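Human: We require from you a protein record containing the residue sequence and its fold in C-alpha cell form, and nothing else.

Assistant:
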Amino acid sequence: MTAADLAPQPGTDAPWTEAPWTEAWGQPEAVERLRAAASDPAQLAHAWLITGPPGSGRSTLASAFAAALIADPGNEAAMRQVLAGTHPDLTVLRTEGVIISIRDARALVERSAFAPSLGRYRVIVMEDADRMSERTSNVLLKALEEPPERTVWILCAPSDADLLPTIRSRVRTLRLREPGIDAVARLLVARTGVDPQLAERCARHAQRHIGMAQRLATDERARARRDETLTAALGVRGVGDAVEVAGRIVQLATDDAKALTAERDEAERSALLRTLGIADGAAVPHAVRGQLSALEEEQKRRATRSLRDGIDRVLTDLESMYRDTLMLQFGRRDGLINRELAAELAALAGMWTPARTLTVLDRIRATRANLEQNAAPALALESLLITVVSGRIP
C-alpha cells in the first residue's frame, strides 16, 4: 500500500479533512492517538516509531500522519501533495537495498535540519528502520535526540526490538494490531472486486499481510508459484529431492522478483534516457554512461533485496504449512492457513512426531537468520529441506 492509495477514490464522499485516515482501517486506537498528536502540539513527540507485523499498515499510517502534520486542515492541495509523496516538506526513505546505508541516513539527517518551507512541519519518514546497522543507527541518534522544533521523525519497523535501545529511548512507540483475515478479505473485495472466496483464501495465505494478499488476489501467477512451492516441499523424499527442490524454489523466487522489478526497471531507464534527451534505440553517449551505470547498480541492489524478500516469503509459506501440521498433530483443525492442503498435511501429521515438526520449524527460523547473514539461498534451502527429510539438523 502506497501513499497514493490513501487519497479518496472517485465516487467516494470522504472529505479531504478526513482523507489521511480513510485507509488506516483496523487501527482505531492508533488513528485516534496520531490524530490528537497532529492537532495538539502538547501531545506531539518529535520522533515516533510505528511497529506492527508485516501488512498491518505501518507505512499507510505513517503517510496519513505525515499528511495531517504537514497540511493545514482543509488544505486540499497540500494534502494531495503529501499523499502523492511530492510535498517539499516530506522526505520518505523506502529501502531499495538489503540494508539502509550510512549515506542514506546522513542525507535524512541533513534534510531534517531544514525548517518547513510550506507546511506546518517537516516530516522525515523512514520505512524499514529495522534494516539499519548499528553504525547507521548511530548516525540518527543526535538528530532524534535534538531535532529542530518543527521537524518530526516517523520510523517504521516490525518490532521495537528490531532497533537499538539507544534509538528506542529517543522515540515514542506506537504498536499496531494485526488485522483479521475477514477484514483483509473485505478490503480486497472492495479494492479489487475479486470474488469473496478468493479474497478470503488470499488473505489467509498471506497471513493477513495486506500488500501480499492484494498481490495474490490480483496475480494468478503469484498464486501458482506459491502453490508450486508448497507442493514441491511436500514431495521431498531424499537428499536428491532436497537439492532439486531447493534449486526450483530459488528459481521461482527469482522469477517472482523479476516480475516485480522488470517493468519498473525498464520504465526508470526509459525515463532517464528521455530526461537526457536520448531517443529510444539511440546509442548512449559516453558522457552520460555513468548516470546509466549508477541507475543499473541501484536496480541490481533492489533486485537483490527483492530476491531476499521473495525467499523470506517462501520461508513464511513453509512455516505456515508446518505450523498447520503441528496443529493437526494436536487435534486442532480450526485456524488452518493452508486448508486446501488439509488432506496432505493430515497424512504428514500422522507420519511425523510433534518433536520432528518442531525441529523443522526451528530450522526454518535458523535458515532465515542464516540468509540475513548473506548465506547462499540455494545452500540454505538445501540444508532446510534435508532437515525436512531426516528430521535432524544437518
In short: Residues 1-17 have pLDDT under 50 and may be disordered. Residues 181-234 form one domain. The beta strands are 47-51, 90-93, 122-126, 151-157, 172-175.
